[in-house]
What we know:
Blueprint: H1 5-14, E1 19-23, H2 27-40, E2 44-48, H3 50-70, E3 75-82, H4 85-94, E4 98-101, H5 108-124, E5 128-133, E6 137-140, E7 143-145, H6 155-165, E8 169-172, E9 177-178, H7 189-198, E10 203-205, H8 213-221, E11 224-229, H9 231-245, H10 253-275, H11 287-297
Helix pairs in contact: 2-3, 2-10, 3-4, 6-7, 9-10
Amino acid sequence: MLSSTKELLETARRNAYAIGAFNIYNLEGVKAVVNAAEVSRSPAMLQLHPSALIYGKLPLVKMCIEAAKSANVPISIHLDHSTSTSDIRLALDAGVRSIMADGSPMPYDKNLEFTRDMTTLSHKFHAVVEAEIGRISGTEDGLTIAEKETKMTDPIQAFEFVNLTKVDAIAVTIGNVHGEYKSPPRLDFARLEKIRSLVDIPLVLHGASGLPAEMIQQSIQLGVCKFNVNTEVRQAYMQALKLEICGDSPKDLLEIAGEAIAAMQEVIIEKLNLFGSVGKAHLHETPYAEMLSSQAYNTK
């Protein structure tokens, strides 16, 4: 069922688990996320990086929306890491009701201005807005941020930013990275705890690929209710294609696609278990959830 990100995050936060947001690029990725969520009776998010939006354009957005509508568990659609007003407008016009207005590459004042403007625009569509304070290092979809450019989220600045922009969720930088961790992850939980004490909206952690279970659980206890996952799912997809295409016995195209879906699905189910959302789909099937989805998607 096509669901509201606002409801997914609020319910997860209230019940001490987190929503998995998985970047997708094609039909195989969409099927892997939806299949994994249905098997696990878990809510989930289909997440479009701007590069995927450029690649798939409106047909990819429409496919995500139709897949969510057909799912028997709550699924929302989210535009990830967008720094473009035109892309955000395109996504909103296409029916996406969950946006990350990412001004983190900009100076703080510009980030504030951009995020405030995009939040005002998005709220006119009843869309939820995620923003980011600080700068996360690593590589995602060809974009690399060097460690020297990273900046931890300042709790006081985050409090000010949320109050001035009226965003609905905030992504924090506490030592998490995009892509693979080159050394054992070290998260600043004291910083996260301080942010949680000052900011009363859902917290998001990017770079969940490679984080150990204990760090996931501690993050959830300190208020994180959405984890972004990309690298491990992409790696599973690429490895499955390589094994099947280069294998000794030739296979049909759809057989290969099925093996790739299964490989991604296995990783996604593992993450849903880590995030504590398995078996929680029923918590999102309430009159409140229906009301929020109806308001966002104008389904009634």
